[in-house]
Automatic annotation (TrEMBL):
Gene3D superfamilies attached to this UniProt entry: 3.90.1150.170, Type I PLP-dependent aspartate aminotransferase-like (Major domain)
Organism classification: Bacteria, Pseudomonadati, Bacteroidota, Flavobacteriia, Flavobacteriales
Protein name, entry field: Aminotransferase class I/II-fold pyridoxal phosphate-dependent enzyme
Annotated family: Belongs to the group II decarboxylase family.
Example of a GO MF term: transaminase activity
Source organism of the structure: Zobellia barbeyronii
Amino acid sequence: MTTGQSLAEVYDAEQFRAIGKELIDVLADHLNDLQHKEGKKVYPNHAPEDELQFWEDDLKQESTPIQTLTTLLNRSQQTQHPKYMGHQTAVPAPISALTGMVTSLVNNSTGVFEMGPASNAMERVVTDFTAKKVGYNSSASGIMTSGGSLANLTALLAARKDKAPHNVWEEGHNEKLAVLVSEEAHYCIDRAARILGLGDKGIIKIPVDHNFKIRTDLLPQYLDKAKADGLHVFCVIGCAGSTATGSYDDLDVLAEFCEAYNLWLHVDGAHGGAVVFSEKYKDLTKGVEKADSVAIDFHKMLMTPVLSTALMFKEGNKIYRTFAQRAQYLWDSPETEEWYNSAKRTFECSKPFLSAQVYLILKTHGMDIFEKNVNQLYDSAKLLSNLITAKPEFDLVHQPESNIVNFRFVPNKKMNINELNALNTDIRKRLVASGNFYIVQTTIANQRTLRCTVMNPLTSEADFVELLNEIEKEATSILGAQIAYV
Ligand SMILES: *Cc1c(COP(=O)(O)O)cnc(C)c1O
């Protein structure tokens, strides 16, 4: 470990310049290799304990910052690799790496205008742009926050403030509150509801249909049952789309139901809300403009690094009431609505300069770049699902509505569910260990599925063909070994 630099050296501009110039070359070469060089691994596949040991040892050794950063690069999951088709993490536009350098250096903490003048103004520009794409009118407004989980929690707090019969924020709980949500919702909704103090009974999970969409026909009876059980339902959460399969709930019908019963409609569009930027796919969220709030992650399909989320409100003033509180040292008048003091409307006090990433991507690559990305990813997923359907030994679990594709390898119909689950688990393990592809898995109706999320717009048809071939090869070798063993 290098020791003994003075604080003056830490902040020395020339040292920074020298490392920075070299680093850009390292990063550009790395990116180029991942995109074009044969044989670059997607995932290094080290065991957690080995990885820990490596870094404990590394800390004791001499190396330059460039050497350490290069090691870090190579020991990471390579989301920039076209054969990365794993979790729903964006393949960041490289301009965002450069933007991140600048926002890290200025380190404006955004909460109040004076600690982020550009940050607060850009946040307004970005959220106004996004609100317009949602279909909201000028009474809407939004915030940027650190992730979909926090955005969903914030939305539920706003919903409770607006629709609960008493003021929990000030008085605490004196009534049992509840929300209605699809059983396919992201786990953070369940967690948010528990943080709000709703408990098991306050999270009412509605079954889904064969397309994994919330059964809207069941809503009235679940609402009646909740009332009979002494619960006060204040909010319905729609999935756009759901986590496992990327299925979109019928937001039009949900909005109609919420209107009829005076409930808040929140749309969890963390992943699939990005289609509001696409003419081709925006009908998947038809009715979203009637929702009271909607969360969209930029760090999923909209090309920014983690975390960057927009939470939009149809009636922008409602978010100010959510966190109404005195903080004398931050602002003079807690009651007034000032868009430029971000912390009045977010859970966070200090908050990264999130809007710069979105702003720079739009400004550098064009206002239609998100649309191009969403269209490319969704079209690609359809292509992959067609390739899967064409192969008799593969079983497509559902037609993809988004860029999420679930499928299984089913070499013969006589294998029972346990054998198939074990086989598909093994296939993925070997595939990931090979480092040639990165895909994930999930369980749908007790069936272990292979799950690809097409995140990289550079992933090609040839990559998909190679993936399916490699799955067949791994399966043959697993089954061959089993037969030899018997
Ligand atoms: C990713 C995701 C979340 C959680 O968002 P984070 O940004 O990871 O906190 C919530 N809901 C859905 C549907 C998601 O895809």
